[in-house]
Amino acid sequence: MRTNGITRRWLLNSLGVILLILITLILILSYVVRGYVYNGIQTALSSRSDELTNVFADYGRKSPKEFSTAARNYVENFPSKESMELMVFNSNGKIIITSVGFAPDESQPMPDYKLALESTEGYGTWTGSLTSGEKVMAVTRVMRNNEGGFVGAIRYVVSLEEADKQVAIILGSLILAGLLIILFVIVSSYYFMNSIITPIKEIGATAKRIAQGDFKVRIEKSNDDEIGQLCDTINDMADELGAAEKMKNDFISSVSHELRTPLTAIKGWAETMQGGGNDKETLDRGMGIIIRESERLSGIVEELLDFSRMQSGRMTLTMDKIDILAELGEAVYMFSERANMEHKFLLYEEPAMLSPVLGDINRLRQVFVNIIDNALKYTEEGGTINVTATESDGFIRVVISDNGCGIPAEHLPKVKKKFYKANQTIRGSGIGLALADEIMKLHSGSLEIESHENVGTAVTIFIPTLRQLETQPQTDETMNEERNSENNG
């Protein structure tokens, strides 16, 4: 048993309390039983002494000598000589007769006799030990004449050894019952504690393996209780950690591939140009590729830096009044040539005018660029990408849709998570959508995705207008209600 284990703490706490309660109950019960037995004996002795009032009722007017004679007759005819001893005192306080027939031992303590002499009722009782060590209970009744003079006394003495034996037997029975209860508690608790400790040990061992990177290990659930729920939670945690680990590895692989491709192109053309003997056309082409791939590398690194800032909560915005229509048009124009080269149609329905918004010009352009770039990547040759912008109820609504491969339903809820890629065959780091979603949240807006596999994808961006922010600050719930009503419309 471990010194700091649950079983030890239970033994010290729960079992210790149970033991203390049982000991207290046994002591109380033994005291009550002893008092009950002793009170019964005292009641019996008192009843016997009360008989004297009737037996000696007519001796109140007679002499002490006549009382002594009558007392002798009472002792000789006493029916309970076997269970108690009687002593008769004369008017001088001397023992003149006993029921045992032996000479009285006047050296024995008799506090009850003294109490009876001092009492107005002529009654005294005492429980104690004789000089021999025998424990007894004694009751003395004093007789007086009509003038109040001391005539004599009769003393009843009962040995308490048998009573103490009975009390000891009852106490032993109580102790035995207490031990049986403790044994039952220990045995039942042993199985109960094992039913808790054994699964906990298995959970601990499994959690340790998960901490070491084994995300495939699972805990077998045996009971549908709190421990069973804990097993389910840890199994779910292992699933999530495994998925996160896979996404991380895929992310590293994707980023490595994203970095390797432009680096390979830059290195190849640099080596070609270093060899000399190249004509101007080749040099211009090589420099163009190097510049383009360097910009691509710079974009990847900047995206990673932005993602790092987002994760650490250090992403800041430079907010200003901007023309969202101009930024959207510039983003579309950036991809026009690429769309033509890839034989895809990039259509932009530019509205006449949109209200200004409060935002970071570079971050909003980054969102548009990421979404349009994704639409081009996931659209086959000959496909169409549509970009529209409208204003309604204080919000700018930008929709970028395509008729590409679409996103499978099981992947759709996760596409905005970090590192997640629904299609591993297409280049990309898997953080573009997560970054765009975070940027929109920082602008009090939102980014929503609707997609159907083999049909296409539509990304809707909501941005509150400057007037909306100034005149009617809204909670996220109000914004969501307005957007949902607009979508349903």
TrEMBL record:
CDD domains given in the database record: HAMP (cd06225), HATPase (cd00075), HisKA (cd00082), PDC1_HK_sensor (cd18773)
Record-listed E.C. numbers: 2.7.13.3
Record-annotated Histidine kinase domain positions: 254-467
Domain HAMP, residue spans: 194-246
Reaction catalysed by this enzyme: ATP + protein L-histidine = ADP + protein N-phospho-L-histidine
Entry-linked SUPFAM superfamilies: ATPase domain of HSP90 chaperone/DNA topoisomerase II/histidine kinase, HAMP domain-like, Homodimeric domain of signal transducing histidine kinase
Region (Disordered): 469-489
Subcellular location: Cell membrane
InterPro entries referenced in this protein's UniProt entry, alphabetically: HAMP_dom, HATPase_C_sf, HATPase_dom, His_kinase_dom, HisK_dim/P_dom, HisK_dim/P_sf, HssS/ArlS-like, Sig_transdc_His_kin-like_C
Membrane topology: Multi-pass membrane protein
Basic and acidic residues composition-biased segments: 480-489
Keywords: ATP-binding, Cell membrane, Kinase, Membrane, Nucleotide-binding, Phosphoprotein, Transferase, Transmembrane, Transmembrane helix, Two-component regulatory system
Gene3D superfamilies in the cross-refs: 1.10.287.130, 6.10.340.10, Histidine kinase-like ATPase, C-terminal domain (3.30.565.10)
One Pfam assignment: HisKA
Tree of life domain: Bacteria
UniProt key word Transferase: yes
Name by which UniProt lists this protein: histidine kinase
